[in-house]
UniProtKB/TrEMBL annotation:
<protein>
    <recommendedName>
        <fullName>Hypoxanthine phosphoribosyltransferase</fullName>
        <ecNumber>2.4.2.8</ecNumber>
    </recommendedName>
</protein>
<dbReference type="InterPro" id="IPR029057">
    <property type="entry name" value="PRTase-like"/>
</dbReference>
<dbReference type="GO" id="GO:0006166">
    <property type="term" value="P:purine ribonucleoside salvage"/>
</dbReference>
<keyword id="KW-0328">Glycosyltransferase</keyword>
<comment type="pathway">
    <text>Purine metabolism; GMP biosynthesis via salvage pathway; GMP from guanine: step 1/1.</text>
</comment>
<keyword id="KW-0808">Transferase</keyword>
<dbReference type="GO" id="GO:0006178">
    <property type="term" value="P:guanine salvage"/>
</dbReference>
<keyword id="KW-0660">Purine salvage</keyword>
<keyword id="KW-0547">Nucleotide-binding</keyword>
<dbReference type="GO" id="GO:0005829">
    <property type="term" value="C:cytosol"/>
</dbReference>
<dbReference type="GO" id="GO:0052657">
    <property type="term" value="F:guanine phosphoribosyltransferase activity"/>
</dbReference>
<dbReference type="GO" id="GO:0000287">
    <property type="term" value="F:magnesium ion binding"/>
</dbReference>
<dbReference type="GO" id="GO:0046100">
    <property type="term" value="P:hypoxanthine metabolic process"/>
</dbReference>
<dbReference type="InterPro" id="IPR000836">
    <property type="entry name" value="PRTase_dom"/>
</dbReference>
<dbReference type="GO" id="GO:0000166">
    <property type="term" value="F:nucleotide binding"/>
</dbReference>
<dbReference type="InterPro" id="IPR005904">
    <property type="entry name" value="Hxn_phspho_trans"/>
</dbReference>
<comment type="pathway">
    <text>Purine metabolism; IMP biosynthesis via salvage pathway; IMP from hypoxanthine: step 1/1.</text>
</comment>
Amino acid sequence: MGKNTVFSDDIKEIVIDEQELKDRISELGKEITDSYEKDDDIVMLCILRGAILFMADLAREIDLPVVFDFMDVSSYGASTESSGVVRIIKDMEENIEGRHLLIVEDIIDTGRTLKHVVDMLETRDPKSIKVVTLLDKPDRRVQKEMDADFNGFEIPDKFVVGYGLDFAEKYRNLSFIGVLKEKLYI
Ligand SMILES: O=P(O)(O)OC[C@H]1O[C@H](OP(=O)(O)OP(=O)(O)O)[C@H](O)[C@@H]1O
Ligand SMILES: Nc1nc2[nH]cnc2c(=O)[nH]1
């Protein structure tokens, strides 16, 4: 398991290891770079808190000038099941009217969080909205139309932690994506 030995006893399974994350994020950076023009005005919006590590690594693989912004949104609380109620805890700061918006998510699960964020930001008249997600759980989608423009990995219907994703705020600093042992959810 290498780093993060403090969590070794908690992990049942590694779903995506550190090298696989690195390689795919590098490819995503190229795909995103190729999808814009060199002089496009792009705001990269990190959806806190889960997407923070992905945003940091992805931004360095995008060969375009980008502006960073952050929005804190929460729907899971300390549970592994979405509450269905999406709360905006902190709005973004940039004015996105007439600019290209790239939303950076760690995971699209039911799609409720993304739907809420996209619907809200569309009213601010950006020139375009694209979404990049590291992980996608298509089997869990409630909001069927909520697919990303760029998608790192499709994963099965398992609650995952690591590389930004938490369970009750823990495990975000794991360098891989994994599944916890069942006893920890009790
Ligand atoms: O597609 P959905 O079912 O809406 O789930 C996806 C959202 O759930 C997680 O956020 P969470 O509310 O756990 O906040 P966090 O990123 O601060 O951990 C994750 O970061 C996504 O934003
Ligand atoms: N940590 C974590 N947060 C999520 N939010 C939606 N799905 C997930 C998941 O599998 N893991």
